[in-house]
Design a protein that fits this description.
Elements lengths: L11 E4 L6 H12 L2 E4 L21 H15 L5 E11 L7 E11 L5 E8 L6 E4 L2 H10 L7 E7 L2 E9 L5 H15 L2 E5 L7 H18 L12 E7 L13 E7 L6 E5 L16
Parallel strand pairs: 1-2, 1-3
Antiparallel strand pairs: 3-4, 4-5, 6-9, 7-8, 7-9, 10-11, 11-12
Length: 287
């Protein structure tokens, strides 16, 4: 990666983060693109949404990243490049009982107006929660969540649902802190909602996923458009409809990827190597 041309040649860039993401993002972008990434210290990124639910995220994952970038540009008006990342965690859309972590890292060049987005999605995450009524259950959950290397948060609970307005304790550093937090919240609510802390600086697994999303951003940046040579010619859409191997009808399986250029608008549809899909992905054969 270091041997390829570095297009930015020590140009400054500002990263909107409060949670140490520069540790993985900055070195990669310095080596690969030549950017000198610094953290925008004047931005409270929690105002765009928190995993602990005390501040709800409005809009999509990409909307939140773009809002952070807009704030970074406002905080550094002379800087032409800004960055942000955003994570999303929830159930896997196709595999029951499996969590899925999605990370994006976004780079925006104010001068050109171009935006580059790196992606990483994986079930490799410790994202989980438990409602506990005693300290022993909380310790058992924390052990499973790889605490204290990975953080946990404790909040109130009402009718089995998280209630951060009743109580919310973060930055729990050791088993004694966890015991004190759980005891305090049980005293208020009768139970406690214990959840993995998904902030990057308290979750090494997530930090590795952000690193992979940054590598994907670099890969996309280094893919030039075959028409205008602008960077960022990459997959922007996946088209479903691969024919079923039994009935020949369209399935949910991907039949083609669409690559596009944000600079000139050139699009290329690239068929996948498979010619048919398993009947299990066909709504007619496997309703």
């Amino acid at each position: 990666m270091a041997s390829a041309p570095r297009p930015y040649r020590q140009e400054p860039a500002v990263l909107a983060t409060m949670h140490g993401k520069e540790r993985v993002i900055a070195p990669l972008l310095e080596r690969a693109l030549g950017l000198r990434v610094r953290v925008s210290n004047g931005i409270d990124t929690d105002r765009f949404g928190t995993f602990s639910r005390d501040v709800e995220r409005t809009g999509s994952q990409l909307d939140a990243a773009r809002a952070k970038i807009a704030a970074a540009f406002a905080d550094a008006p002379d800087t032409q490049v800004a960055l942000a990342s955003e994570g999303s965690f929830g159930p896997h859309p196709y595999i029951p009982f499996l969590p899925l972590a999605r990370e994006i890292v976004v780079l925006t060049n104010r001068a050109s107006g171009l935006e580059f987005i790196g992606h990483h999605a994986s079930p490799t995450t410790n994202f989980s929660h438990a409602v506990v009524s005693d300290v022993g259950a909380a310790h058992a959950f924390a052990d499973h969540a790889q605490f204290p290397e990975h953080g946990v948060i404790v909040m109130g609970v009402i009718d089995g649902q998280p209630a951060p307005a009743c109580a919310l304790i973060k930055d729990i550093g050791n088993p004694a802190d966890l015991e004190n937090a759980v005891t305090q919240v049980i005293g208020i609510c009768g139970a406690a909602f214990v959840e993995t802390d998904m902030r990057a600086h308290r979750n090494p697994t997530r930090m590795r996923a952000i690193e992979r999303a940054t590598l994907d951003l670099i890969r996309r940046f280094r893919s030039p458009c075959p028409v205008c040579a602008a960077p960022g010619f990459a997959v922007t859409e996946r088209l479903a409809g691969l024919p079923c191997s039994w009935c020949g009808g369209p399935t949910l399986a991907i039949r083609a990827e669409v690559l596009s250029c944000a600079a000139c608008g050139h699009r290329l549809e690239r068929l996948v190597s498979a010619t048919t899909a398993d009947s299990g992905q066909c709504s007619d054969c496997n309703p």
